[in-house]
Design brief:
Blueprint lengths: L6 E7 L2 E7 L2 H11 L4 E3 L8 E6 L5 H9 L4 E5 L2 E7 L5 E5 L4 E5 L5 E5 L2 H22 L3 E3 L1 E5 L4 E6 L6 H10 L3 E4 L3 E6 L2 E6 L4 E2 L2 H6 L3 H9 L10 H8 L6 E2 L5 E2 L2 E2 L1 H6 L9 E11 L6 E3 L10 E2 L19 H11 L4 E6 L3 H11 L2
Parallel strand pairs: 2-4, 4-9, 12-20, 20-23
Antiparallel strand pairs: 1-2, 1-3, 5-6, 6-7, 7-8, 8-9, 10-14, 10-22, 11-12, 11-13, 14-15, 15-20, 16-19, 17-18, 21-23
């Protein structure tokens, strides 16, 4: 009997790593594509050591796994926009299932995480997410902190971090600077750690959400729409309504029933291939920006001394998209956050008012980051 071939992708950033294995080559290829542009993704040789995510298109029927979980005392949550039920056995093994996605999970603390599912793309997505969560846990344990920020770096690795709530202009600042020759380090969140008198910055690999209006303002809408019309695909988490808008050349922003804007979702490599942006794998914090965007305002530097607040930090307790079901991420205390904030507050900080004129916004950004 022929032994099936097992494939693997090793994901590494700083000195931390996780290996994804699968008997389906597309699952490990997905992780190489997803993590390669921002983290280091390679093909290791067996035997595979360290933290492992085993992900295969097989295994038990997900419905029966979910039924087995709910027959005992269990919990449920929304993980990656899908209902997840889970429980811990007396031996602290975590069993979980997402019935709608036909996915089942088994995690042994201190050991590996096993994912099985019925559909290849869903298994690949789950493997990439959980591999990232395992690396996140390693980074947090090593003293890194996650900030809600975009980041770009110059040719020397000096990084500009941009903060603010949703809609404040973090992505706008990052993309405008990236279009002017800076390297994109992060679109929505970053890892930071004080190092000597400065702060190191690492990216958080993820699909990049960029609104239709912003794409249009950057003169990127037409090339993106043309690729979609030719049959190329963006990230599968993108809402079908957005795909339809690109196919019909509609530039009108789309919102769901809760009022949230639905945006095109780009793979990390598509930021380079489709949008012509250069990506960075690390930086060192040099400047902080705090923008707001107004419809009928001229770009300006405001005389406001803005500082980081609690909402600028991500923790295992406040994570909204990927709650720490498997206990992979240690808690980070307020003392660590205060230390990070103190070091960052020594850097030049600018509070900005941005408008809807991309050229004028770019000119202002060029001035404050010179």
């Amino acid at each position: 009997m022929t032994t099936p071939e097992q494939y693997a992708t090793r994901i590494q950033t700083d000195i931390h790593d996780v290996t994804v294995t699968s008997y389906s080559e597309s699952v490990t290829a997905w992780s190489r594509r997803y993590f390669g542009p921002w983290w280091n993704a390679t093909t290791p040789k067996p035997p595979y050591t360290g933290s492992l995510v085993e992900a295969d298109v097989d295994g038990p029927d997900t419905a029966s796994v979910a039924q087995d979980i709910v027959e005992y005392q269990h919990q449920d949550t929304v993980y990656a926009n899908s209902l997840m039920v889970y429980r811990r056995t007396p031996g602290r093994v975590v069993l979980a299932a997402q019935p709608a996605d036909q996915l089942a999970y088994r995690y042994v603390p201190g050991g590996g995480l096993r994912i099985s599912g019925a559909e290849e793309t869903m298994v690949a997505l789950a493997a990439a997410r959980l591999a990232r969560e395992m690396v996140r846990g390693q980074l947090l344990a090593a003293g890194w902190t996650i900030l809600h920020a975009s980041a770009v770096t110059d040719s020397t690795g000096q990084a500009v971090l941009t903060f603010g709530p949703k809609g404040a202009g973090k992505t706008t600042c990052a993309l405008l600077l990236a279009r002017k020759g800076w390297k994109l380090l992060a679109n929505d969140r970053v890892f930071v750690r004080p190092d000597g008198d400065g702060v190191r910055v690492l990216p958080w690999p993820s699909a990049a959400a960029i609104g239709l209006g912003l794409l249009d303002a950057l003169d990127l809408y037409e090339p993106v729409a043309a690729r979609v019309k030719d049959g190329e695909e963006l990230h599968p988490t993108q809402d079908p309504l957005v795909t339809d808008a690109l196919r019909t050349s509609s530039r009108t922003p789309i919102r769901n029933k809760a009022g949230k804007e639905l945006k095109p979702q780009f793979f990390p490599d598509q930021l380079a291939d489709w949008l012509g942006l250069s990506l960075a794998t690390e930086g060192r914090a040099a400047r902080l920006l705090f923008p707001t965007v107004g419809a009928d305002t001229a770009p300006a530097v405001l005389d406001v001394d803005q500082r980081l607040g609690d909402d600028d930090f991500f923790t295992a307790e406040t994570e909204d998209r990927y709650p720490d079901v498997f206990g992979l991420a240690p808690s980070t205390g307020t003392a660590a956050h205060e230390h990070v904030a103190d070091v960052l507050h020594r850097l030049p900080r600018h509070t900005l008012q941005l408008g809807h004129d991309a050229a004028a916004n770019t000119a202002l950004l060029a001035t404050v980051t010179a």
